[in-house]
């Protein structure tokens, strides 16, 4: 892009009012000026934000002390670059920009020189604009700024990417992170004696002797194709490189996925912009005039077409909104040519010390503006002045072309494709060295070298070993890892104190074969429990890595609570040992299993299983029915053989891949599941025939300023007759004091049984929309959360213990110690419970008041309860 060049010859002014008395001084001044003007120097450079290091477009750069009429000032271009030519007699230039403190820079008398000027953002800068410029009450009516933003909204569909039928472009992404705001005392600690090469001076710090520690960088180069109808965006990744830690300690892919979710790409043309797991209303959203105040603060005539600087602030400073400036073209298209955005200090956002967004658009040959560069900088910290994590993500777009229709094969398949040989690291490195569109700063280049050097230091590897134990729960021991540690000790009414030790193999032993095992002992029942599994991965990857493709054989002999299916944690987790009420109904289960699973790149997963299961009642659980003489008949053992198939489709799913499970990162796309299980009588001692069908769907609904809601719907039908209740649907109850998202928190274990049912689960997070508007309360930054759970179903007469014809052919209902019935099916209404709670307590805790709405006449049925859940959110 061409630089703006404004150089003019300065004119001297002679004061002639006191010609005689000041003749000597005037002649001296003229001679000095003439000598100075005969010699000039050229200063070029870039104006950047001090924290994010992102260039500032259209900032003013002027020579300090030069006469105003001389024209020795200029504006930075869209890349923050400037060029000045002025006499050598001036030694200082000054950068100024709305929302930033003026910044001076001294220059030498060298004929050609370059300067980087770092500007500090002002605090509450836009609120000051409102006070000075607006003398009367703000109103949208007859407001030229609002009229202009409505024009931008009206034209945004034709100005955005989705307004084109076909588009293609080159895309370069760079994301870097590091520890920030480190003190000199911290850096000089004895523990860091061998790591001094990692620390760098923090040029953006407002005080001296501050340091940063760059720790992560990832670059990606892609070719992207867009088609409007049918809508498809296809990204071919041509190269991807990052500074990686030893995968024995860190899941690099999962870490990168998590960082990419925090630092998402910003599209200002979207109504809602996702940042740090929250949604912010765009200043050009359809409803923006309702939530924002707009002001015309400048007209820029040095650019073609002319631009209007449109400043905006939230009407309520605590809402999830931006403040900043838009630069709108005055060519009739009302396109966004640039944007600078941040958030108010009062916003209900955790751990974010600073957030800056800069967008720059560039005009093509047909006068359309397309996004050239997007930069997002975020500084995370537990405290305002303490150590933090500062990161930035820059996305650069080049070779933008529209109207070129590609063959359908270009758009087919998954949205993202690896289009290079990931094993050829030399070629990948050469690609970035020769075709990287934005040069890396020296400190960014150092990260690659420093991470490699760091991992060779023994003390650092020891530290990572300890960190992996804390974060993943496993202790490295050569080719195996021991854990998880949170299951080493637990207790329950049947086993009493339970000790467990286990472990699993790692890729250091084999990339294709994985083994996992544990042994546990209960001191009350004096029984050993065992588990062993062997897994073969067909794709030469970890069995937990996407896309999974494996076959697994397993053997398990252990206890189980009927109806409990904990997907992400083990039942013998120490924290789940604390339970309320009567909770001593357990099962001793012996299971032989064979499982096959395959995931596809489009996030469709299929699976099949074969299980031989033997179970016996434990604790106060009983298996009994009436015989022909009306006498109770006890069963000490049940046997079943099952075949199963399952499907799961989660389009565009994102997750953080941990050591033992995945943590989903939900987006706007639904997740669908289907499961079928058949019990086969006569096969491998199977005693019952039945067919179980289960379908489910999950969807997160984003409600802009009103938060979001997670909705899960599920249905289940079991075909067959005279089926014992252990093989029917035992609805998932929770008798712990933790709030469980997928369980009924005031339902007792084994309270409800059915062979057909439908359920709904709604979790609504309002994100403080109401509480942020209450004085004093809003300072606590609490967030409202509401939930409703309901399930309705029943038992067909052939499976109902209360049916006069079949009651003697199925197991009787469970009873408590007082012989009062404690298990039921549904009556004329669904089971329902609701809760209202506060989240973000101490930034990590959610506490709910849960109310059970019906079936309060059941034995030991709690009417209400207080439940807590650790919820870490931004």
From TrEMBL:
<dbReference type="InterPro" id="IPR043741">
    <property type="entry name" value="DUF5686"/>
</dbReference>
<feature type="signal peptide">
    <location>
        <begin position="1"/>
        <end position="38"/>
    </location>
</feature>
<dbReference type="Pfam" id="PF18939">
    <property type="entry name" value="DUF5686"/>
</dbReference>
<dbReference type="GO" id="GO:0004180">
    <property type="term" value="F:carboxypeptidase activity"/>
</dbReference>
<dbReference type="Pfam" id="PF13715">
    <property type="entry name" value="CarbopepD_reg_2"/>
</dbReference>
<keyword id="KW-0121">Carboxypeptidase</keyword>
<keyword id="KW-0732">Signal</keyword>
<keyword id="KW-0645">Protease</keyword>
<protein>
    <submittedName>
        <fullName>Carboxypeptidase-like protein</fullName>
    </submittedName>
</protein>
<dbReference type="InterPro" id="IPR008969">
    <property type="entry name" value="CarboxyPept-like_regulatory"/>
</dbReference>
<keyword id="KW-0378">Hydrolase</keyword>
